[in-house]
Amino acid sequence: MDFSKPKRPVDRVFLHCSASDSEAHDNIETMRRWHLERGWRDVGYHYFIRKSGELEAGRSLEEVPAAQQGHNTGSIAICLHGLKQEKFTKAQFDRLIALCREIDKAYENQLTFHGHCEVSAKTFPAFDYKTVLGLTESGDRKNAPASEPQRVEQPILELTAKGAAVAHLQALLNEKLQIDLTIDGHFGQLTKAAVISFQRKKGLIDDGTVGRRTWEELLA
């Protein structure tokens, strides 16, 4: 599904989640039904990303979304299926990164990207969207850890580290080990175990700390 720039003015993209991990709710038609039951004339989101990474079209891009009250004008709304952070999938994040990169390119990198929580008392989306998309505090997509890893610094990383460099690490481990770590920017026990596995594979000191030699092998 290619992104086609709408004629209406757009300057922001808002990210949402469906607040459900039920397989039965993992589709745009369920979102549409829920929104119609609320009296809306259509689903509020323009895009819906399923756990599989499949991208589904919702409301027409030519129409203003009904997704973040008081902040709909000039926006595009994207929803990922999910509620618990650990249940969002790599496939979803990969699709989100690709879609946002395409949207940003169409607007010559003039858009900003935001979570619903920035304009609402709600805590959604329930994942670290700033790390996933490599956003600055103002919402610019300048660090883009998984899609543009060359921009991410390579500090020493170990258990409990957080941030874009950890997300970059997780993306590289998924690629090198053919595994499916969640790219959430949090260096937890699963990430440490993957680092140790990679270090053993490459004959490095298997201490679970990502230093210069481990980075060199990951980036080779």
UniProtKB/TrEMBL annotation:
Pfam families: Amidase_2 (PF01510), PG_binding_1 (PF01471). It comes from the Bacteria. Keywords: Glycosidase, Hydrolase. Gene3D superfamilies: Peptidoglycan recognition protein-like (3.40.80.10), PGBD-like superfamily/PGBD (1.10.101.10). Its EC number is 3.2.1.17. Residues 163-218 form the Peptidoglycan binding-like domain. GO terms for molecular function: lysozyme activity; N-acetylmuramoyl-L-alanine amidase activity. One of its GO terms (biological process) is peptidoglycan catabolic process. The keyword Hydrolase applies. InterPro entries: Amidase/PGRP_sf, Amidase_domain, Peptidoglycan-bd-like, PGBD-like_sf, PGBDSf. The keyword Hydrolase applies. It is an enzyme of class 3 (hydrolase). Residues 7-119 form the N-acetylmuramoyl-L-alanine amidase domain. This is Autolytic lysozyme. The gene is lyc.
